[in-house]
Amino acid sequence: MGLPSKRTPKNKTRTRNNPANPGKSLVLKSTNTCPKCGNIKLSHRACQFCGAYKAEKVTKASK
Ligand SMILES: [Zn+2]
Predict the structure, then answer these.
(1) Ligand 1 centre distance from Cα of residue 51 (Å)
(2) Which of residues 27 and 6 earns the better pLDDT score?
(3) Burial, 49: exposed, middle or buried (Cβ in 10 Å; 0-12, 13-18, 19+)?
(4) CA-CA distance, 46 to 54, in Å (whole number)?
(5) Residues in contact with 14: Cβ distance below 8 Å, sequence separation at least 6, in sequence order
(6) So what's the pLDDT on residue 47?
(7) Rounded Cα distance, 59 and 63, in Å
(8) In which domain, by residue range, is 61 found?
(9) Tally of structural domains, the chain
(10) Over the stretch 14-41, which tens digit does the pLDDT of each residue have?
(11) 3/31 Cα distance (integer angstroms)
C-alpha cells in the first residue's frame, strides 16, 4: 500500500469533508425510493424507515 508523499493540508481536508461545500463534499447523493414504503433511501443501504432492502425486510425499523 502506497503512502502519501506529502501531508494533506488541514484546510484541504476540511473543504473536502465539509457538507456545506457541495462540489467537493463526500455527501452521498445517490438516493432511491424504497419499493416498500416509498420513502427516499440511500442506494445500497437498507431503508431507514421500514428497514427493507430490495423489498425484503432485513432490519428492524427504528421507530
Ligand atoms: Zn422503506
Answers:
(1) 6
(2) 6
(3) middle
(4) 8
(5) none
(6) 84
(7) 12
(8) 28-63
(9) 1
(10) 766 666 665 554 555 678 888 888 888 8
(11) 33
